Amino acid sequence: MSVTLAPFVRIAGGSASVDLVVDGARCGGCLAKIENGLQALPEVTQARMNLTTSRLHLVWNGPADAADLFARKLEEMGFRAAPYIQNDSDQRDAQASRMLLMAMAAAAFGLMNVMMLSIAVWSGGADMAASTRTLLHWVSAAIALPIAAYAGRPFFLSAWQALRVRTTNMDVPISLAILLACGLSLYETWHGHVHTYFDAALMLIFLLLIGRFLDARLRARTGMAARQLAALQVTDAKRLRTDGQVETLPATQVRPGDQLIVARGERIPADGIILSGNAQIDAALVTGETALQALRVGDIVYSGTINRSDAITVSVLKASSDSFLADITAMVEAGQQTQARYVRLADRAARAYVPVVHSLALLTLVGWLIAGGTPRTAILNAIAVLIITCPCALGLAVPAVQVTAVGRLFSRGILVRSGDALERLATISHVVFDKTGTLTRGQITPDVTAIDHDDLARIGTLARQSSHPLSEALHIYAADLDVAKITEVEGEGLMGEVDGQSVRLGQTSFVGAGDQIDTGLWARIGDQAPVHIPVSDRTRPEARTVVRDLSDMGLSVRMLTGDAPDTAAQIAQELGIEMVEARVKPAQKLAHISALQDKGRSVLMVGDGINDAPALSHANASAALASGTEISRSASDIVLQGDTLAGLPFAFRVARSARARVRENFGLAIGYNMLAVPLAVFGHVTPLVAALAMSASSLIVTLNALRLRREGAYEGPAHPGQTYVSPARTGKCAA
Amino acid sequence: MNSLLWLIPIALVLGLTALATFVWALRSGQFDDPDGDAERMLSDDDFPLT
Questions:
Q1: Mutation for A interface: B5, B7, B40, B45, most A CBs within 10 A
Q2: Does B30 have pLDDT greater than 60?
Q3: Annotation says A434 is catalytic
Q4: Contact at CB, A105 and B34, closer than 8 angstroms
Q5: Region annotation Disordered: residue ranges (chain B) (predicted)?
Q6: Helix or strand holding residue A431 (H, E)
Q7: By the 8 A CB rule, do A70 and A11 touch?
Q8: Least CB-packed of A35, A452, A494, A734 within 10 Å?
Q9: How many helices (H) and strands (E) does chain B have?
Q10: Which residue of A has its CA nearest to B16?
C-alpha cells in the first residue's frame, strides 16, 4: 500500500478530516482498539469507526500529510486502510433504504391506529350505532389515505414504470389492490356501509415494505463490501518526470509515452516496452503460466504482470483504457450482460401469478353479476380477491430467505454479491477451477528429492546470495558454509565458490547441460554432471477436501489452466480431478464454458487471475478469492475471504437450502391462496379474515426463512479426520 | 361516545409522537451503525455519539 492519502483529506475550519475504509475490523475489540489507539495521538480530535460499513472517520488538527502517519499506525495495529471514495451509488443506496424505513414507520403508525379503530367496529358489531361506525370509518380514512399515498410510493412508481413500457410486474396488482381498496372503502364510508378495507390496504403496504427493505439492505451491504475490497487495491504508478523526480499517480492516469518505474514485486500498471533493466516477469495471474519469463530491453510487458527482478523502466505504449486489461474488461462486460438475463425466481413466479390474479378477480366480478348479485357486491368481492391474493407472502418469501442466507455466509467470510447469485449457485452442475493461484498457491516450490544432502546445502548457500525468486525458493536449504567469488549473470544464473567448490545455478546453457529440458532450475557442483531441480506450484491444503466435497454433492469438477500440460496433469492427479485442459487462453476458457452451457449444463467458474475474468463473467455463477486480482473479483458473484477455498462447499449447501426454503415459501403462499381465494370468490371474506390470513401467511414465511440460520451450525467435519476451519475463526480478527 | 372524541385524538397524538421520535432518530444517524452500537455498549470506555 503506497497510496498517499493527502489528496483525500478535507480541510475545514482549521481541522482536517478523512474517511478511510478499514479492512479486518470485525468485532467490538477491533473497534475499541482502533478508536483508542488513534485518539491516544495528541493531534487527533475525533476517531469514529463504523463497524457496519467498515469506515473510519478521522478528524485532526494539523497538516493533510498526517493522514499517511495514521494509516501507518493502523497498519501497525494490524488493519489495512484505504481512502474511502464517496460513491454515487453508495449515496443512492443509503437514500433508498432510508426512504423505505420512513415509509415503513409511517405505514406502521397508520396501520396500528386504523386497526385499533377497526377492532372497535368489529367488536361493536350490530350494537354499534350507524353514526358512530361512520365516524370511526371517517377517522380511518383520514389516517389511511395520506399514509397510503406516502408509504405506497415505491409500489406506485415501479408499477407506473412497468405500465409505461407496456409490461406488468408484481407491483401492478399490488398498486391496483391498494388503490381499489382505498377507493372502495372511501365509497363505502361515504354511503355509511358496514365494511371498509383501509386496514387491509395499510397492512398490505407495511408487509410488502418489509420485503423491499430487506432486499435493499442486502443489495446495499453486498455492494458496499465489494467496493471496499476494490478500494483496498487501488493501484498506482510511479512516473519519471523530465526533471528526474519520481511522482506517484493513479494507474488510470498513465498516458502513452510516459516512463514508469516498476520496482521489484510491483504490478505493471500499463502495457509498455522495457527501456532499461532485465526483467523476470511473473505472468501467473495473467496467463496461468507459473514459470517466469525473462525479458530484455525492447520487449513488451503487459499490464497486470508482476516484475520479480530489480526495478525496470517501462515506456507506456497504450493508456490503461485500451491495454490488454481493457480487452479483458470488454469480455467481462459482455459476459455480465448474459448473466443479467437470468430471471430471478420471484420474477418468474410473478410473471405466472399476475395474469392469474387478474383473471380471478375479473371472473369473480362477472360470476357474481351472472349469479344475480348487485354490481356493488360483485365489485366488493372482486376487490376482496385482489387483496387476499396480493403477494404479501410472495413478496417476503424471497428477500427474507436471501437476507438470512447471505448473512449466514457473510459470517463465514463468504461475500455474495447479489441475491440472484445465490439462486444461480443452487442450480450449478459443473464446477470449473483455474489452477494457478486458485487450486495452488501460486508460489514456487523446488523438488529437491533427487539431490544429495551435502550438495543441497551448497546449492542453498549459493542461492542465498541472490534475490531471484527461483533462488529464494532454495534459501531454506542454506547451511553455514564459506562463500566466495560470487558472480550473478542477469537472466542466466549464479556462480560462486561454496566450501571451496565451484557451484553454478541457473539455466541449462549456464551450467553446461546443453540441450536438456529447459524448465525449472539446473545446478552443477564442481565437475559433476548437472542436476535438474524441477520447480512446481504447491496445491492449497484444503483443495483436495473441497474437490472431494463438491464431487460428493454430485457436481462434476474440472480444471482449466494456462500452464503446461505436465504440471497441470500432476496437480489434477494429486487433487483427484479427472477433466483437465492445459495451455488454455482466456478466450478458450470462455469457449469451454459456453460449450458446456450449450449442452444445457450450468457452470460455476472459480478463479483468481486476470485471464479468468472473462470466463468468470460468462459462467452461470462464479467465485473468486479475495486475494485474487481486482478484475476477477469484480466479475464474480462470490468472493472467498481468508485466502481459502474451504468456504465453497458451505456456500453450495447454504445456496441449496436457500432454494429449498424459497420453494417451501412459494408452496406456503400458494397453499394459503388456495384456501383463501375460494372464500373470497364466494363472498365470505370480511376485512378481519383478510387481515388475519395475510399477516399469518407473512409470519409463517418469515419464520421459515429464519430456519436457514441454523444451516451448518451444528455440522461436524465433512470427512472424518478433516476439519473445516471457518475464515472467521482463523484469527482474521486482529484483536 | 363522548369518551371516543377524546380517546381517538389522544391515541393519534401518542402515535404521531412515536413516529416523530423515530424520524428524529433516523435523521440523527442512530441507525447508521447497528453492528458497532451493539459492540460499543459492551466496551468499558465507550464513546457515545456526540
A1: B40
A2: yes
A3: yes
A4: no
A5: 31-50
A6: strand A430-434
A7: no
A8: A452
A9: 2, 0
A10: A109
Distances (CA, A) of A249 to A260, A308, A511, B1: 10, 22, 43, 76
Q: What is the pLDDT of residue A509?
A: 74
Do A544 and A533 contact (CB within 8 A), yes or no? no
Over the stretch A271-295, which tens digit does the pLDDT of each residue have?
888 888 878 787 776 666 666 777 8
CA dist., res. A241 & res. A247, Å (int):
7
Instruction: State the Cα–Cα distance between residues A581 and A564, nearest whole angstrom.
Output: 10
Cα separation, A225 vs A340, in Å, equals 20
- Find the distance separating the first CA and the last CA of chain B, reported in whole Å: 48
pLDDT 10s digits, A670-688: 787 777 788 878 877 765 6
A102 close contact with B: CB closer than 8 A = yes
**Per-residue pLDDT band at B14 (split at 50, 70, 90):** very high
CB-based contact A498:A458 (threshold 8 Å): yes
Q: Which residue of A has its CA nearest to B17?
A: A109
Q: Which pLDDT value is given to residue A107?
A: 94
Rg (CA), chain A: 33
CB contact under 8 A, A105 and B15: no
Mean pLDDT over residues A643-669, rounded?
A: 87
Q: Which of A258, A406, A251 is CA-nearest to residue A325? A: A251
Torsions phi, psi for A441 (to 5 deg): -85, -15
Q: Highest-confidence range of A219-228, A696-705, B3-12, by mean pLDDT? A: B3-12
Q: For residue B36, give the nearest of A50, A105, A116 by CB distance.
A: A50
Amino acid in position A41: L
Phi, psi of A178 (to 5 degrees): -65, -50
> Looking at chain A, how many residues does it have?
735
Catalytic, out of A23, A171, A271, A434: A434
Look at A105 and B23 and tell me if their CB atoms are within 8 Å: yes
* Distance from C-alpha of A519 to C-alpha of A239, rounded to nearest angstrom: 35
Residue A445 — φ and ψ, nearest 5°? -125, 125
| Cβ-defined contact of A109 to B15 (cutoff 8 Å) | yes
Average pLDDT, chain A: 79
Residue A207 in contact with residue A148, Cβ under 8 Å? no
C-alpha cell at A158: 415501479
Query: Which range has highest mean pLDDT (A113-117, A521-525, A704-708)?
Result: A113-117
Q: Quickly count: other Cβ atoms within 10 Å of residue A237's Cβ.
A: 24
Q: Is A187 exposed, middle or buried (0-12, 13-18, 19+ CB in 10 A)?
A: middle
Residue A228 is predicted with a pLDDT of 64
Contact: A113, B11; criterion CB under 8 Å: yes
CA of A546, closest CA in chain B: separation in Å?
A: 32
Q: What global pTM score does this model have?
A: 0.70
- A366's grid cell: 362477472
Mean pLDDT of A394-419: 80
CB pairs under 8 A between A and B: 56
